[in-house]
Each structure stands twice: as C-alpha cells, then as structure tokens.
Amino acid sequence: MDFEAIVNVSNLIGLPVITLDSHILNKIDQDFPIPRAKLSPRCLTCSTSKPITLAVEFKRVNLIKENAFLNKVTEIGFSTIVLYNKTPREPVPDQEILPIAYVFKRRISIVLTLFHEREGNFWWHGDVFSDPESEIKLQTLGLSAKDVTNLEHEGAFDKFEVISRQLPGFPSPITVPSNVPAFVHDLRQSHFKECSWSRAHHYEKKYGSTRKTPEGRWFAHRAWKLLARAKTLLDGLDVPFWISSGTCLGYFRQCDIIPHAKDVDIGIFATDYKKQIVPAFVARGMALKHHFGRLNDSLELSFLDISSGVKLDLFFFYEGREGENRRKMGKSSAYGKKILWNGGTQAKTGKKFKYTFPHFTLCWTEFLALKVRIPCNTLEYILANYGPDWAIPISTWDWKSSPPNVSPNGEWPQSEWPEVIRVYYPELQIAKTQHKI
Fold it and tell me: Rounded to whole angstroms, how far apart are CA atoms 349 and 411?
C-alpha cells in the first residue's frame, strides 16, 4: 500500500514522518485499538480520494537523508515533485528559497509537508502558490493546486508532541500527534499570514524608523515583554485573542509597535471570557486599572504593568447585525450583514460608544517574534478603525470621535455605575513604591 510504503521508507532511513491527514487521524482515534482483522493499511486510505497529508521537521532533513529518501521512494515506483517557496505572497527579508513539500504519486497521492521553525518557536509551512511552477509540476502527477488542500495557504502550528503507534497490519510504527482531537482542531485554524515587510520598508523610508529614539526603543521592548506575558497567560487559560486597535495598526503598517501609542491592545470574543483572567493577570504583576461594562455589554478591561507602567487594554467583541442600533432607537431598519463590535465607556459621564467592524475570522501571524492572531482580512479591519488615511502617522487621536467606525451607544444609568464603571489608580501605588525606594 502506498501510505505504508512511504512510512516504511522514512523509518528505514531514520526520517520518521508525522501523519497529519485528518481522515486517517480521525479513523485511528475512533477505532484504535481494534481487532487486527478490522484494520489494515488499505482500510486507512480506502475511503479517501484526496492526497494523504504527512509532515516532517525540515531541520531533520539534511542533504544526505533527503537524497536517500527521494531516491528510495523513486526506486519503489513513486513519481516525485518538490515544491519551493520561490515567490511568497509576502517575502521575508533575507529568507532563502525553501522547499515546502514533496508530493508523491503511485496509486494514490501523498503530500509530505515540510515544517520550518520560526523565530517565535513555532512550525510554519508555505503554500502551493509560492512556487510559480506548482501547477505544471502537479499536472505531471495528474493533480492541480486545488487538490493539495493542506497547502492552499501558509500554515502555523505550535510545536506539538508526537507518539509512535504500532497498528495491526503495519510492519512499521506510524508517528501521530499525541493529542489527535486537539491537533485536528488546530489544523482547521492554522491559516498563517505574513506581515508585509515591503509595506513596512516603504513606511520607514517615507517616515523614518519607528525605533529611532531611545523612548521608541524602550517602549517597543516593554510592549514586547507585556504582549509576550499576556500571550502566555491567555494561552494558558485557553482564551483566543488577537492584536487589536493601535497594536494591529502598527503590525499592518510597520511590522512593529507604534512607539507613541503607549499601550498594547488585544481583542477577545466575549464568548471566550473567563473569570480567571483578572486574577491571573494581577498575579503576574499587572494591576487592574479599570473594569468597564459587563460581560453581555461593552466589557473592557485595562491593566497597568507594575514594572514598566505600560498599559494593556483588553477589548471584548460581540456579534451583531447592521441596523441594530436604529431598531433599538425605534427607527425602522431591516437587519443587515453580520458585524462584530466592541464597546467603550467614558468614565466621567457614563456615555457608551460602539465600534463596528465587518465580520471577520482569525489567522496567525508572527509579530515581535511571537505567534499571535490577527483578523484574516486585516486591511478591512484597519480601514474600519482608522479610515483610508491609516498609512499616514498622526500624533493626536480621540478615542470617542476619531475612529470612523465609532457611534454613540447610549449611557449607563448612574444607578449602575458602581458595577459598570470601576476605576482604579495603580499609578498612585507605583509612585508611592518608587518614592519609598
């Protein structure tokens, strides 16, 4: 069987491949262990017409092993092509041309994806369209780009543990993720988008480096440390987040932090809120600065990093429909497209504000050497929040009136202020501590 043959060859030369094919993984996870008679190499692949997906860490593939592997695969009757990352959609500075996959074909097709380690300590793989000759190469195997679904976009994975399983009917063990359900979940959300270094270079050439002052360098370093700590805490709580507002603008425009922003902004879906967030952040040296709104309406948390004085804002996002506000105010309006929105509260007046975004999904990127999420359609997100002049730096910004997507959203009744407008003053405590020192 073709799948068995590739696994045998890889094990023979000491290059064990990881089985990532969701069809096979789901079948193994559901059926293993089962009687020998019910599971065979053919059974694992008999009901799929798509190419089987495998992977291997690129750092394990040296020239000797690569040649031995590809030669042996050819000897046993497979046709082979190699896809390269020659023309990526967003080139990375100083990145060499990398192989991104080996594709084999005998009776069935097998795609061996190459995982490359990134600075953020995660695995990345390229997409089929980064090889300008991919369609011609694939046609020699009777395939097209749409058949190689696992390479339809760049992907990113946290490094995961693998285990070896000896399946009935297989002479060699196969290597699979140790937590199959978790991997299959991550596979569906693995879409990666590279920061546009060409856009960042153009911005720097026109407006100068974002880190040309000592203050800019200091803030960028502190912001990176704060974002890294927030990532560790939220990942530990299994709370998905993305970089939002000014932090997302800096990423999209400059591939960097905006030095005069003075804070770090994060977006979280309200449905992912967990009550452990506040105590977890406080325990790691971040004092709660304010707590606005409530879970079902305009929740916003702000923390102050005790060590640096840099602020971290957590904005919670809600699903809605265009035209909701007009209907709430008694004006006739049909519900329109799905939207996402987050709220804002003015502490001294109780006024509420609403920031509306086109509905979006999340993708991965690498920012400040961290694997973090961004809205997949980042430009649409930026345009909503900053308008068509987003590429021009400005020094003044009023959160209540400057964003083009902001609108009034009523007021909190004064009777509710003790619950929905909670303001703390950690700066005073920091000042007292520094004065004592």
Answer: 8
* C-beta separation of 90 from 255 below 8 A: no
Q: Which residue is listed with tokens 């799929």?
A: 48
Closest CA to 232 of 120, 75, 93: 120
Helix, strand, coil share of the chain (percent; to 5):
35, 30, 35
- SS3 labels along 136-155: HHHHCCCCCHHHCHHHCCCE
Decide if 193 contacts 155 (C-beta within 8 A).
Answer: no
Q: Predicted confidence band at 260 (pLDDT cuts at 50, 70, 90)?
A: confident
Contact indicator for 355, 343 with CB cutoff of 8 Å:
yes
* Structural element, H or E, at residue 123: strand 122-125
Task: Supply the pLDDT for residue 33.
Answer: 46
Confidence of residue 334 (pLDDT cuts 50, 70, 90): low
> Shortest CA distance to 386 belongs to which of 283, 263, 249?
249
pLDDT in tens, 186-228: 999 999 999 999 999 999 999 987 677 888 888 889 999 999 9
Structure-token pair, residue 261:
């922003």
pTM as predicted: 0.90
Find out whether 286 and 305 touch, Cβ atoms under 8 Å: yes
Are 52 and 112 in contact by the 8 Å Cβ rule? The answer is no
Parallel/antiparallel/unpaired status of strands 311-321 and 263-269 = parallel
* Tens digit of each residue's pLDDT (9 = 90 or more) over 384-393: 999 999 999 9
Q: How far apart are CA 68 and CA 74, in angstroms?
A: 10
Number of CB atoms found within 10 A of residue 177's CB: 22
Q: Fill in the amino acid letter for 227.
A: L
Extract the runs of DSSP E, i.e. beta strands, from 17-91: 18-19, 52-57, 79-84
Least confident piece of the model among 1-15, 180-194, 342-356: 1-15
Token pair 């089962």 in the structure block, residue: 34
